[in-house]
Amino acid sequence: MKRLLDVLREECGLTGTKEGCGEGECGACTVLLDDEPVNSCLIPFAQVRGARLKTIEGLKGTHPLLETFVTEGGAQCGICTPGMILAASALPKNATLEEIREGLAGNLCRCTGYEGIYRAIQKGTTRQRPGQSSVLSPQSSVKQRRTGVRTGRGK
Question: How many angstroms separate the CA atoms of 140 and 138, rounded?
C-alpha cells in the first residue's frame, strides 16, 4: 500500500513535501487533508479519495507565511519548513503563542530554537488574506494529527 507522501513526491512531482522520520513523529511531511494538518507518511493513498488535499505547492507563493518565514528567520535548512508553514496556515488569525505551540506540537525543527518560527507565524497569521478560514482549533490533539484520525467526519 502506497503512502500519500510517496505518491505526492514520486508520481505527482510535488517534492515540497519532505520525508523526515517516516514514522509520523517529525511533521516534515505535513499536508492539509480536508483543511486539517496530517502527516502524509502515515496516510495510505487510498484513504484520500474524495478529500481536499493541499501541499506547500498549493500555497502558490501567495500566503503571508511564505514571506514571514524568510524575513523572521523561521526557515533554516528547509526540511521542516513546508510542514511548519502548512501546520501554521491552519491556525486561527492572530493566534496566541500558546495556540501556535499547540498547533506545531507535531512539527520538529533541528536547526532553530523555534523563536524565529514563532515570530514568523505570529506575523504571518496577522496578515492572512481576508476571508481565509481557520481550520485548526486549539483543542485539536497531536494524537489525531499524527495518526491522521479526524473527528467530526462520521467515519
Answer: 6
